[in-house]
Tryptophanase
Amino acid sequence: MRTIIEPFRIKMTEALPVTTRAQREASLASAHNNVFLLDAEDITIDLLTDSGTGAMSARQWAALMQGDESYAGSVSWRRFESTVREITGFKHIFPTHQGRAAERILAATRLKPGDIVPNNSHFDTTRANIEYVGAQAVDLLTPEGQDIYSDARFKGNMDVGKLERLIETKGAKAIPFCMITVTNNAGGGQPVSMENIRSVKKTLGKYNIPLVIDACRYAENSYFIKENEPGFADRSLMEIAQEMFSLADGATMSAKKDGLANIGGFLACHDDEWAEDFRNMLILTEGFPTYGGLAGRDLEAVAVGLKEALELEYQRYRHATVDYMASRLIERDIPIVRPAGGHAVFIDAADFCPHLKPSDFPGIGLVNALYLEGGIRAVELGSVMFGRVLPGTKEEIAAPRELVRLAFPRRVYTQSHFDYVIEVLDLVWRQRGAIPPYRITKQAPFLRHFTAHFVRGDVEPC
Ligand code: F0G
């Protein structure tokens, strides 16, 4: 059959808020033109993130009821640990309440000021946790990966030549570990090939530098490998995931993505000394090592979800939904990152709004237009999220790209929801010249996108 169907049916529904344009204008104004500050009840289709927004399966809800809430030695912890060990093979596994808690423990225990952490592309929280301890986060994407419109297959790959040059110039001692993010969220949800992970590992091995996988979307990456990398077509997603993790010395994970859960994560490693430090910091900031900031029932839901994410029918449907949207936008000449990523469609806001400069924040203009036109919430991944103000000045340093992400919550929206999004985008595309510039009036020193206030730059303040 040519039609790829949702491999589930719907047992419970949740009403979608439908609003008028006047209501949306008022809501956006009171949210200081920042969609992060909107109330969810004012949003019709929420594509802000694929993180923690998925629908759990009947099996996950059933597992939830088995939650053992014992403070120490919970049965749910054992189930969580054995599932994570089956998939990743790591000796030491620590539950955390989400991905950034794992990143924080890793950065706080292993880094000192002046250290360097390479990655294909750091996600915002990973970068912020590294910078918070005074270390430097360096992105080493391949030239292909930096080219938005190249249809190359593994555009999340790390540039191994650049990695080797960085190690040679800075010295291995300055690099306590290297990371690789699968899939590469900041760069368009693009996958990393097994061959690339293997050659990154080989290069690091020469200098005794450990490799840590940011594994948030490990199952989506495994599917890309199965579909597109020679030699993997007959391997199961579980086998591919196991091979990927076998190349790493540690992993950080947000179970809010490919754990198909609403909360949760973990940190894992082989090294006993690392584990000792992680355990001590975990107890200080997250909780006892058999729950780490999670309820027993959350551990159960994650244990089931991690396996469901590796089901082939599920991944086939998931990738088909992203492809469906991507191909319809390409048909309309709407500029998007190609090929389609695993969890989202990324629009190139710089090309969408050629009349705006990076300092006009074209991504914010596009995100706000989508909300005003159709009640859709997207997110900017451009100069607000990744740019910064030059210290001691008011000068903005632009990000390398101005992207807007439409992230797909897992198992939540149907094809007609996506048809609606395509129709709204089509309308905004035809009126793109009217998208205004925005200016920041208030911002935090870290992760400013979450709380910044904006005003329209084409309207005089009263
Ligand atoms: N690493 C990557 C690649 C991520 O995409 C995220 C979160 C994290 C780490 C942190 O995990 O949210 O559980 O603390 N990404 C979400 C997103 C927020 O919208 O892409 P977390």
About this structure: The pocket of F0G is lined by residues 49, 51, 98-100, 123, 125-126, 181, 185, 214, 216, 254, 256, 265 (CB under 6 Å). The chain has two domains: 21-50+312-456, 58-308. The chain is about 40% helix and 15% strand.
